[in-house]
Amino acid sequence: MALKLLMNAFQLLLAAAAGFCLVSCAVPSSPGGRSAGRSEYGHRPGPQGFHTVILDAGHGGRDTGATSPWTRQYEKDAAMDTVRRIRQELGSGFQVILMRDGDYFIELDDRVSRANAHPGAILVSMHYNYGGTKTRGPETFYWRMDSYSLAKRIQRELSAAVPSQNGNRGLVRRRIRLTRNPEIPCVLVEGGYLSQVSESRLIADAGYRQRLAKAIAKGIRDQAAYGDAGMGPLPPPINAPMSRPADARE
Ligand SMILES: [Zn+2]
Description:
By secondary structure, this protein is an alpha/beta fold. The protein has a single domain (52-226), classed as 3-Layer(aba) Sandwich (Aminopeptidase). It has eight helices and six strands. The chain has helices at 2-26, 35-39, 75-90, 108-116, 148-161, 177-180, 197-203, 206-226; strands at residues 52-57, 95-98, 122-129, 139-142, 170-173, 186-193. It has a six-stranded mixed β-sheet. Strand 4 (139-142), helix 5 (148-161) and strand 5 form a beta-alpha-beta unit. The longest helix is centred in the N-terminal third of the chain and has 25 residues, at 2-26. 40% of the residues are buried. The structure holds zinc ion. The site of zinc ion has 5 residues, from loops.
């Protein structure tokens, strides 16, 4: 009897140790630690079944982002409004966290650490673009393998939602802080060009922003439901260092 009790206690200890390892081994390494491991961040399939969505309205406060020369609209305001619409479109099936919920600035690296506080979530950063007066159309940036399908789903929905003359600039694989550094799947959406006259007039229209929000929310919902299924082969993983402010665009 005593031996059996001892055995049970030993088994409990083993189970506890295994449980501890499961938990601790799943915790991402802290910034600065285990740099080799961190270079491989995102080398995994895309997420499925997630419940938490972090929506990041780009810029804010003193950082207005781009300004439309045609409507004088600030990118930071259009992004904030669109993010609130995405939250509304996602409905109660998700826990939605807004990176900022007002007109203030958060440093990019702080946005990354705030996102990292929610393992198991995904991050969508919302922006509007600026370029030549002829360039137009939405585009979605991703860098990591685990963010590819989410980006592709969002971009596919956006291209179906915008007028055909606006075009579809497609997916762009680019290593920037918000597509490389967070420890959760992360994409950055450029909803269209504030520098292009007709597109900027559309972006100034609440109904149009609602359409964009609806498209983005559908991409997010589909990713949660289906993961990478039907999205074709995933892009090869790339071992690249963390993105720094001084990096050249790539
Ligand atoms: Zn921006």
